[in-house]
Amino acid sequence: MGGEVEDWEQTLADLARGRGAALKRRAFLLCGDEAQADDLVQEALVRAFTRPMRVPRPGAAEAYVRMIMVNLFIDGARRHSRWSRVAPLLRPAGATPDPADQVSDRDAMLTALRGLSPRQRACVVLRYYEDLPVAKVAAALGVGEGTVKRYLSEAMSRMAVQLSAAENG
Amino acid sequence: MAMPIDEQELRSRLAETAALAGPPRFTAESLAADVRRARRRRRRTGIIAAATVVAALAVAIPLTRGPGQSVISEPGPPPPALAYTVTANGQTRSVPASGGALPLFTITPGERLTLTVQVRVPGPEPMAGLWLGITNGVLNGHAGMKPVLAASTREPLRPGVHRFVLHWAVPAGLRPGSSRQLSAQWAWPGPEPGNIEREFAAFAVPLPSRAASPAAVAGRLLATARQAVASCGGGRPAWIRAVRTTFSQATAAVGGGGEIADNATAAVYLVLMKGDFILANGSPAPSCAQAPNGHYFSAIVDAATFTTLEAGLSNRPPSAALQTLGPVQNLA
Fold first, then answer.
1. Which of A156, B87, B95, B331 could pair with B116 in a Cys bridge, judged by C-beta atoms 3.0 to 4.6 Å apart?
2. Is residue A64 within 8 angstroms of chain B, CB to CB?
3. Range of the domain at B226
4. Number of separate domains in chain B
5. Is residue A2 very low, low, confident or very high in pLDDT (cuts 50, 70, 90)?
6. What is the DSSP string of B23-72?
7. Nearest neighbour of B143 by CB, restricted to A54, A130, A139
8. Is residue B147 part of a domain?
9. Nearest to A50 among B5, B39, B290 (CB)
């Protein structure tokens, strides 16, 4: 049996190389920003492997990282919510736009996602991108199933308005 | 008024949007370096806390093992693994701490099952907690067990053998061919606390005898194979073949079989697919998490319940040709 250090390093390397892109895509949907998505995945991976663990089967490591990502995203959004709202106002005139902003201009879906609250966005991503049942979404977010259904319903209504406006305008 | 969003369309648009993300900017090496730094910080914090207690008690405890071999650079102990035995309906299956094939029991919908689970806690430290419960193919902590059949969290579980008698009412609506798992989560204390989750056993409802016709079997195996490929995001297989054999022969053929399984003589189908399997898309299936890839995908499927017992990927074909195990069916 290999040493513990080799085990976690191999698992981390496999996860980062094999699933890094998929984790980044998921984080991108959550954050709506390239750089934040990279940071979110990176922080989740580091947290997951800081405490030694032995995964029962290959999927457990990724599931663990995914769970940490959602929690970090919601916690981070809660901490920085005030900053996020005023940040655009603080951007100096003439500053180079973030490439992700250009992406958002092109993609109405990303704009619609950005119009949702962090919890609503997390629900939409878990339910419709990852295809998790409502019960699993509720467990991942630590809320009741009814709450998830409410978030999803509100999110769908809000996104429908955003997407219709984008398509008509 | 805005048109409601169609869920299928939403799924597809989310996938398209996610694809706008560029490649990750981090590397496996940079992540490993970050993890090492974080681990050193944690150990330093632990040592400082311990040193404070030691100073207060005026007791000298060596913090290093020898010259140049500091505690900080010492890797933590490996997480403890459990050996266990599950008894259901008079049948007993044992799995060593090093792991092994998942024991499989057949069940009847609606039956009240009494399970005896013996768990051996390795020494020297006790376990902080143990949960046993029923899961449905996904491990998501004890919160994901429905129901939790036993929870031992009030007092540490000391090293040695612990016996749990569990009662589970099998859902009456469980359809033939479907399965549930007995899963365990255990946590350990100490300077490097953590927890592990693992499936202990599978319970499956057998299919009716009419499902044993060659056409029905082929259909089931093909569906299982396609589901495995689809859920892992793999490419379309060039061919899919299957052979009926025993569990031990199947595991030996695909390079497993290192351990002696209780179900060594159980009838199984070895399903083999050839293709370019790159398990690296956004699949929610947790079994694909480490994104292995290869040209051969094998699955060992229980012949009575069609539950997948093992699955693997390799760049090389099995060591034994399928024809040597029995008549080969070409499924696709």
1. B87
2. no
3. 209-330
4. 3
5. very low
6. --S--HHHHHHHHHHHHHHHHHHHHHHHHHHHHHHT-----EEETTEEST
7. A139
8. yes
9. B39
